[in-house]
Amino acid sequence: MLPSCDALSLREQLGQLIVPLLPSHPYPHDPAALELQLKNLHAGRWGGYITIFPKPDLTLALTRLQAETRIPLLVACDLERGAGQHLEGLSRFPHIMALGATESPDLAYQMGRMTAIEARLAGVHWVLAPVADVNSNPANPIINVRAFGGDPSWVSTLVEAFVAGCQEHGALATVKHFPGHGDTDVDSHAALPVIHASRERLDACDLVPFRRAIACGVGSLMTGHIAVPALDPTLTPASLSEPIVTGLLRHELGYDGLVVTDAFNMAGIAEGYDEGESAVQAVRAGCDVILMPPNPLRVLDALEQAVNDGTLSRQRVAEACRHVLAAKASIGLTTREVASPAPTIAPHPDAVRVAEAIAIRAITMVKGAPAFLPLDPVSSGCLVLDDDGDAGVYAPWDDALGAYGMSRRVLTPKSGPAEYGQAFAELKACSTLLVPVFATVRAWKGRVGLLPEMVGLIERLGASGVRVVLISFSNPYLIRQVPDVAAYFCAYSDHAACQRVALEVVMGSRPARGILPVELVARVEA
After folding, report:
1. Spatial distance between the Cα atoms of 413 and 421, rounded to a whole number of angstroms
2. Rounded CA separation 257/167 (Å)
3. C-alpha dihedral sign at 337, 341, 346, 352
4. Residue 431: which residues within 8 A CB-CB, separation 6 or more?
C-alpha cells in the first residue's frame, strides 16, 4: 500500500510534487545515463517522470527506476494523439479536431480507451490529454487542430467521452490548458500569451469544457502558461496565479483533484521568472505538481527553503502531496509490481479500426458541390505544399496518388523563385489541380498559415483558369488566405488514414461526411 502523506518527511513530500523529464537514451548501452537518473531519483524521491519520444528500451529503465523507489512513480506522457504519438511501436490517431468533425462521442470514448490501454502496456499511467481548449481564435499558432473545435458544448461532450474512455481503462486523464488556451495568437512555448476575454466570455466559452470535465470526475487538470487579466489583473501566468488556481479552480469550480503545471521549460513561464521562485509560487497558488523543470533538484531545494522560511506552508505542501498519492491510488498504482511496464508492447488490434473510422467520418467539404466530383486523374495535376519540409509525412499521399497514375510536384519553405516559376509553367495547363497542404501545428513554429509565396502561386494558377482543389491536412482556417479556390476540403490531420480517405473523396469513391467544427470567418461561397 502507498504510505500516507504524514508518514513522509518534508523532503519526501516535496519530491512527490516534482515530475522531471526522463530523457530517451539507449539505456542498456549507456549505463552512465541510467546511473545518473538513479542518483537523482535517490536525491529527489520524485513523484514520477514525464517521457518524450522514448524508445522501446525505455521500459527497461522504468522497471529499474520503479524498483529503486519506495513510492511507485507516476509516469506521464503527452498523448493527445494516442500512445503512438510518443511511444514507439504503438498507435497514433488523427488530431482531435478530426474527432470534432465526426461529432461522435463514441469515437472519442474509443480513442481514450485505446490510448489508456496502450499507454499502460508501455508503463505510462498519466495521459496528458485531452485538450479541453475551445479554439476560438483562427490565428492560434499552438492549439488549432489540437482542440476538438470551436463550439464549447461539443468540445465538452467529446472531452467527457475521451476522459471516460481513458479513466475507465486504467489511466489518469488530464484536461488542459486551464483556464483555456483557445483564444490566443501567441505560442506559450515561445512567450506569455495574454487572453483579453471578459469574465462573461470566459464563462460562456473557455471554462465550459473544464466545468464539464470536473463534473464527470477527471483525475487531473493542467494549468496553462497564459495571463488572463479578467481573472488576475496582475498578468501573472495562470500556473502561478492564486486567484486562478485556488480562487477559481479550487474554490469556485470545486475541483479537488490533481493539478499539474504545463512544462516548466516553456518560455511562457521560464522567461522573467526564476525557476525555483516560480515553482514555489505555483505550489502556493494551488498547483500540486511541477512538470518538467529543467533543474529538478534546484526546484526541490527552493521548495524546501520556502517551507523553512515560512513563504510556503506545510499545510499546502501536505495537501499537494495527498493529491499526488490519491491520483496514484485511483489507478491502482500502489505497488512497484503494478507500476512495472509489460516486457513487450504492441498496438491494440482495435486501434487501427478506430483511427480509420475517425478519418472516414471527419473529411469535410467546406466549399464546392458533389457535382464537382469525381475528379478526372488524366486532366488533373497535383501540387503538394509542404510547409514543414518533411517529405516522410506525405508518403501515404504519394502511395495513394500513385494508384491513380498521378504524380506530384512539391514546394517547401526552401523552394526558391525558380521552382515556383517552374511549378506555374508546368501546372497552368491542368484543368483541375489538387493541392494538399501539410502545415503542422507545432511548438515554437509560431505560425499556422501558408507562406506568402505559396498563396501567390495558388492565386496565379486560379487566375489562369486552373480549378484549384485545396485539401488541408492540418489547419482548417487556410481558406481565409485563399478564399477563391474552386473547392476546399478539411481532413484536419496528416494521419495516413486521413490522407487516403481525402483522396478517395475527391476521386468520388466515398462521400465527405464531416461537420466543420470551427468558424472559419471567411468567404467560402460555393
Report:
1. 15
2. 14
3. positive
4. 376, 379, 380, 466, 467
Q: Where in the sequence numbering do the catalytic residues fall? A: 189, 262
Three-state secondary structure along 61-111?
Answer: HHHHHHHCCCCCCEEEECCCCCHHHCCCCCCCCCCHHHHHHHCCHHHHHHH
Q: Which of 11, 2, 58 is nearest to 30 (CA)?
A: 58
| Burial environment of residue 222 by CB neighbours within 10 A (0 to 12, 13 to 18, 19 or more) | buried
At residue 202, the 3 state secondary structure works out as: helix
- How far, in whole angstroms, is CA 210 from its chain's centroid? 16
For CA atoms 209, 215, 221, 227, the dihedral sign is positive
**325, three cell numbers:** 498519492
Successive 10-residue mean pLDDT values, the chain, 526 residues: 93 98 77 88 94 67 85 95 88 97 98 96 93 95 95 98 98 98 89 95 98 98 97 97 98 98 87 90 98 96 98 98 97 75 78 97 92 87 88 91 93 95 95 94 77 95 96 95 96 97 95 95 41
Give pLDDT, residue 524.
Answer: 35
**Residue 523: predicted pLDDT:** 35
- CA-closest candidate to residue 182, choices 226, 136, 227: 136
In angstroms, the CA 170 to CA 153 distance is 27
> In DSSP terms, which residues pair with 76 in a beta bridge?
50, 126
Tell me: cis bond preceding 436? Omega within 30 of 0 counts.
no
Answer yes or no: are the C-beta atoms of 388 and 359 closer than 8 Å: no
- pLDDT recorded at residue 525: 36
How far is Cα 53 from Cα 300, in angstroms, rounded to an integer? Answer: 26
How many Cβ atoms are within 10 Å of 30's Cβ, its own excluded?
13
Ramachandran bin of 437, using left for φ above 0, alpha for ψ from -120 to 50, beta for the remaining angles: beta
* Cβ neighbours of residue 317 closer than 8 Å, sequence gap 6 or more: 10, 13, 14, 17, 283, 303, 307
Do strands 409-411 and 380-386 pair parallel, antiparallel, or not at all (unpaired)?
A: parallel
The torsion region of residue 448 among left (phi > 0), alpha (psi -120 to 50) and beta comes to alpha
- pLDDT value of residue 522: 42
CA dihedral for 19, 284, 262, 168, sign (positive or negative): positive
Instruction: Write the secondary structure of 440-508 as one string of H (helix), E (strand) and C (coil).
Output: CCCCCCCCCCCCHHHHHHHHHHHHCCCEEEEEECCCHHHHHCCCCCCEEEECCCCCHHHHHHHHHHHCC
Domains of the chain (ranges, CATH numbers): 5-340 (3.20.20.300), 363-506 (3.40.50.10870)
Which pLDDT score, from 0 to 100, does residue 168 have?
98
CB-facing half-sphere around the CA of 99: CA atoms within 13 A: 31
DSSP at 4 = P
- Please state the φ and ψ torsions of residue 103, each to the nearest 5 degrees: 50, 40
Distance CA 454, CA 273 (A): 39
pLDDT score at 121: 87
Cα atoms found within 13 Å of the Cα of residue 432, Cβ hemisphere only:
19
